[in-house]
Specification:
Two copies of one chain form a homodimer.
Chain A: E1 2-4, E2 7-8, E3 11-13, H1 17-21, E4 24-32, E5 35-36, H2 39-52, H3 60-71, E6 77-84, E7 101-107, H4 113-119, E8 121-130, H5 145-151, E9 159-166, E10 171-174, E11 178-183, E12 186-190, H6 200-211, E13 216-219, H7 223-228, E14 231-236, E15 240-247, E16 250-251, H8 256-266, H9 270-273
Parallel strand pairs in A: 8-9, 8-15, 12-13
Antiparallel strand pairs in A: 1-2, 1-7, 4-5, 4-6, 6-7, 9-10, 11-12, 11-14, 14-15, 15-16
């Protein structure tokens, strides 16, 4: 089911700036029987990203009602919200009074979530390097060709994810996930001030670690750091936390910190935080 | 008028990857009474850019027929062709057998083309810096948020264009145009191997200069080079060549090389070149 501006539609205008320029933002997250998980954080991040593009975010109640509507008939599903700057005259400029297009849809959850959480996933290093653009870094916007190109680098079905570095060789993220490592006894995740997407689950892990008294730092990480790490795991809102069990064909042990993070993520912490 | 995959439609599926990820390419160019200008170059560039994303380009006759159909009732109009990877399952990956979505539409030509060609345009230096991504450089793809952000830097109606540098301070392009300068008696335009869009009119100017025996180089240019240039002009397929008559409020003389380029662009050179 797809709702476009609240109405059941499967189409959007061909003149929409989301299509023309990728002029918009999005979120993807799980919903269970019509109840979106970690909803307040998802909404807050959507509003944050929209504001970065000077887009108006629809009212939280309007969006929540639509999320519930598209997901109510599913035991579990993946909800996607897209906000675009709507249709406008040709050209990059905008007036500021465009009507935001909101698209709320539900689809299947990714396969083998529990299996991958338990047994881990194999990953590879992508050859594409992410470009440094501080004006867009961290934002989950609709300009995602780098992710598309990186994901097209491999076909092996047993490789679940590719890790991306920036042009300086710093590790940034997976193609669809954020990366954490346990290095020298400390949980660490890459800085995302030049590129990458700052996901909600990354933020939840950082907050939960702080609450649990576990040191967690946001820092520059090299590929050597990842290879030297005691544990490596990937997070996103649909997958939770995936332990990495092999990097470029080399087996890795799963670890206790990753297991603790998985337990933290079982709790929906909206009430505590926002 | 808009044709989506050859049929009169104003909508596309909300699941299209062009919207989801900007996974596609586009062209914008003039058509006179149903006759697209410099069509073979436009098609060749569209096909080149599509191939860079491993997208299939529709047959040239199919596209030309649609371009003629949308533009036949206009004395002069701007035609836009968008190709996307069509609809697919959620996720950045694609199978490779997706049906390309083609969207062909006609809109008004930009205002005051002749006036600006004659009297020149005022430009400014944008503060946004273009990110270096060699995997996408030169391609007119649908990930255009940098252009949107740069164009939003100014509101003054008498400023026609903003000039963009990369993170190293090298001049790359306008938000919607390519840049040429006459420096030390030589025509020069920026390298676009790290960012920017390599436009058809830029290519036409380079070729025409070579045919005319005028030295024309593609090189790294700094902002200081632009300020020191004897002539600065901007080109795109809809505007032709615009002399720059002021940069950040400082008046500039228009020059003879720009006038020669304008005369070259009056000829449609498809037959000679392709």
């Amino acid at each position: 089911m797809i709702l476009v501006n609240g109405e059941a539609h499967s189409d959007i205008p061909a003149t929409d700036r989301g299509l023309a320029y990728g002029d918009g933002v999005f979120r993807t997250f799980p919903s269970r029987q019509g109840r979106p998980l970690v909803w307040r954080r998802q909404y807050a991040k959507l509003a944050h990203d929209a504001a970065a593009l000077k887009l108006q975010t629809p009212n939280v109640d309007v969006l929540e009602r639509e999320v519930r509507a598209v997901s109510k008939d599913h035991e579990g599903c993946a909800v996607k919200i897209v906000l675009t700057r709507g249709s406008g005259a040709r050209g990059y400029g905008y007036r500021g009074d465009e009507h935001v297009t909101r698209i709320v849809s539900a689809g299947p959850l990714p396969p083998r979530i529990a299996e991958r959480q338990a047994g881990g996933v194999k990953v590879r290093l992508c050859s594409l390097r992410l470009a440094a653009q501080p004006a867009l870094a961290g934002i989950k916007h609709l300009n995602r060709l780098e992710n598309v190109l990186a994901r097209a680098e491999w076909n092996e079905p047993d490789i679940a994810e590719g890790i991306l570095c920036d042009t300086q060789g710093h590790v940034i993220s997976g193609t669809m996930s954020n990366v954490f490592v346990v290095l020298d006894g400390t949980l660490a995740t890459p800085r995302l001030d030049l590129c990458g997407v700052a996901g909600v689950t990354r933020e939840r892990v950082i907050d939960a670690a702080r609450r649990a008294g576990m040191p967690c730092v946001v820092k520059t990480l090299s590929w050597t750091d990842v290879l030297a790490a005691h544990e490596v795991f990937l997070v996103n809102s649909l997958a939770g936390a995936w332990p990495v069990c092999a990097i470029d064909g080399e087996a890795r042990a799963l670890g206790e910190v990753t297991r603790a993070v998985q337990r933290w993520l079982e709790f929906e912490d909206d009430a505590e935080v926002l």
